[in-house]
Design brief:
Elements: E1 2-6, H1 10-22, E2 26-30, H2 33-42, E3 47-50, H3 59-68, E4 74-79, H4 84-92, E5 97-100, H5 105-116, E6 127-130, E7 133-136, E8 141-144, E9 147-149, H6 153-163, H7 172-180, H8 188-204, E10 213-216, E11 220-223
Parallel strand pairs: 1-2, 1-3, 3-4, 4-5
Antiparallel strand pairs: 6-7, 7-8, 8-9, 10-11
Helix pairs in contact: 2-3
Pfam family, one: Trans_reg_C
Modified residues (4-aspartylphosphate): 51
DNA-binding region: 125-225
Amino acid sequence: MKLLIIEDSSALRRSLVVGFNNLGITTDEASNGTDGLSLALNNPYDIIILDLMLPGIDGMDILKQLRKSAVQTRIIILSANNQRQDRIDGLLQGADDYLTKPFSFDELHARILAVSRRGLINNFTNTITINGFILDSNKMTLRYETTDIELTPNEFKIVEYLFNHKDQVMSTSMISDNIANNFDYISKNTIEAHISTIRKKIKLKMIDATFPIKNKRGFGYYIEG
């Protein structure tokens, strides 16, 4: 795992770098928004830890620019702003989690692990093609050759998550974490219902292909490609 830490407090930044390096996690660091944005735009990271109050470019503007540029790296905001509206604004702008200062290193590490379980999106490949089915993470569409398949947001998230983990079995709890973030829980029955609906929508399109979602009974679902 490789992290980017964008934090202007040198003491906090160094303590995070030492803590993560001791866990075997590689880190890059930036002390201001300008350098942080440049690193985030030009390098692949698994997760970005982002302070909001930064010199140069503030954290919220960094978040907006990354999402506008289709950089979909998971982002955890680390901020002294603890108002409810601040947390809501950060999440609505595209952050994957929000942790307020002061915090414990163990909690931050646990949140990083939770966010990483939702699956990582390749920042350089916006489309994935498997057995003729084409998923576009920028346009949030799924089609078979030239036939569009209309999906709800949760249906799309399930397909996107499984496509990004081809040939890997994902449990329903992992799928739930990915589509519900940290604020809700999607039951196993609901996930199964979503997958059943996806298959029905494909069948209604008279597509001469089998959608490659497979079930490994007792373990979860996977995409066979």
